[in-house]
């Protein structure tokens, strides 16, 4: 945190106009920025949404490059470039040798469903709502043992599988889940092929939470949710080997690490429930 403060100070001094960045400049991190109202902000090639007060948000992927360029154009047309140093992370890599990855071959019917599911998810995440919930606090939707973390990956006989982008929390089927932050429901699906019961809550400016493998979805598209609201129940629907919540966070199409947004998991009774890391 010290190093980050120093970096922030550096940014403030180095640029002519006020630029404030708050959050971890690291892979998987979400950063909230502030510029003078009326400014335009670009991260590399992407034009960002800027609120009337000058607030914006950006995020870095699991494998984000070590530098990114932020360009701020003030209302008078003057552009300032700021090169951001993105701290790389080490991920939990599990090597599995001698055992073939259990391959699931989806049928033609399954493939149709998978394509429909991903189009719906893409549509939900494509919204760019002006709401500012992303700038507030996030909280764990569920308290329990963490059984899977962001960025982890299994390598089967030298072949890397798709990395895991969510944080998994194990709990028995039926355990209530609360919204991680205020927002509006943009997708409420009872049973997608891979992710089962799936809920997407939009927190504004392209920041969204996805809750997966739900046994029950208790809200519908368009519902406004606030912290404390029970929005769904834990399950093992879709492709899951045991009941658990898989909570994912997106900034636009960039997958960010939910665990960087919340305080450490509160202490809890160890549950006997099995949840798979993937
Ligand atoms: Zn998972």
Q: What is the element layout, followed by pairings?
A:
Blueprint: H1 2-14, E1 20-22, E2 30-34, E3 40-43, E4 46-47, E5 55-59, E6 67-73, E7 79-85, E8 93-96, H2 108-125, E9 146-148, E10 153-156, E11 159-160, E12 167-170, E13 176-178, E14 183-192, E15 196-202, E16 207-214, E17 216-217, E18 224-225, E19 230-233, E20 244-251, E21 254-256
Parallel strand pairs: 8-10
Antiparallel strand pairs: 1-2, 2-5, 3-4, 3-6, 6-7, 9-12, 10-11, 12-20, 13-19, 14-15, 14-18, 15-16, 16-20, 17-19, 20-21
This protein binds zinc ion.
Question: What is the average of the pLDDT values?
Answer: 91
Strand content: 25-35%
Order of helical and strand elements: HEEEEEEEEHEEEEEEEEEEEEE
Annotation field: number of helices: 2
Number of strands: 21
General description of the model:
The protein folds into two domains: 2-85, Immunoglobulin-like (Sandwich); 93-260, Distorted Sandwich (Glucose Permease (Domain IIA)), CATH 2.70.70. Helix content is 11%, strand content 35%. It has helices at 2-14, 108-125; strands spanning 20-22, 30-34, 40-43, 46-47, 55-59, 67-73, 79-85, 93-96, 146-148, 153-156, 159-160, 167-170, 176-178, 183-192, 196-202, 207-214, 216-217, 224-225, 230-233, 244-251, 254-256. Strands 9, 12, 14, 15, 16, 18, 20 and 21 form an eight-stranded antiparallel beta sheet that branches. The site of zinc ion has 6 residues, from loops.
